[in-house]
Design brief:
With about 220 residues, the protein is an alpha+beta fold. It is globular, with a radius of gyration of 17 Å.
């Protein structure tokens, strides 16, 4: 089972959303990739840049401009990457150029796949379910499966994964579990209504917040 790490940085004071995303895309991401001691351990490395787009599935998650997901084949690979001199001397200090450590979050995740599909899509949607029970992931997957199957193989939702927070490494987790949705296009109203009704039934009054993002893939977890 692979290791999945999610990072939600708190944007450094004085840096705009556009500034943070540009720094991640053109400075920090390439810097990470240039140091094999750090990135050579990655089984996946994707930045997700928040977009100012409404979603029919929830209100925007406040004060978050990006989300990074890094995969490792083994927990030992994650530890070696973080313990490397290149991380300690170069990559780690560079994080201070775009993030405030206070308020930044990092989580280890376990993943439940509802609908397998590509990660190289134009948009991804993350739905954070506040107050949900992390043990609900499998049941939620079972509730989603017939709805997603009904859209057909070429439907607007290309993939759906449920991330359960297994352990927090930095800061409090923003939610016990969150959906990760790969989108081919806008979600039609009838499909959005079906998903909303299922969530209301399954999670009762647990509120949801969303990030609509544009992914930038540095290392694909779907290698040939």
């Amino acid at each position: 089972m692979s290791i999945k790490l999610a990072i939600l940085p708190r944007t450094r004071a004085g840096l705009s959303r556009e500034g943070l995303q540009a720094y991640l895309a053109h400075s920090h991401g390439p810097l990470v990739m240039a140091h094999g001691e750090v990135s050579g351990m990655f089984a996946g490395y994707v930045h997700h840049y928040a977009q100012d787009e409404p979603s029919p599935l929830g209100a925007a998650l406040a004060d978050r401009d990006a989300l990074t997901i890094i995969r490792f084949a083994r927990i030992e690979d994650m530890a070696a990457s973080k313990a490397s001199p290149a991380y300690a001397q170069i990559v780690g200090p560079d994080e201070d150029n775009f993030r405030n450590p206070v308020g930044s979050l990092a989580m280890l995740l376990s993943e439940t796949t509802v609908l397998a599909g590509p990660e190289d899509v134009a948009r991804k949607l993350f739905i954070f379910r506040h107050g949900a029970d992390a043990r609900d992931a499998q049941g939620w997957a079972e509730a989603l499966a017939p709805i997603l199957a009904a859209q057909g193989v070429d439907g607007p939702i290309a993939a759906w994964r449920i991330n359960t927070v297994a352990r927090t490494l930095e800061g409090p987790a923003p939610a016990e579990l969150f959906d990760e949705v790969s989108l081919r296009g806008p979600i039609p109203a009838d499909l959005a209504n079906a998903l909303t009704a299922a969530a209301q039934t399954y999670f009762a009054d647990a509120p949801a917040s969303v990030l609509v993002t544009s992914p930038r893939i540095f290392v694909s977890s779907q290698k040939d």
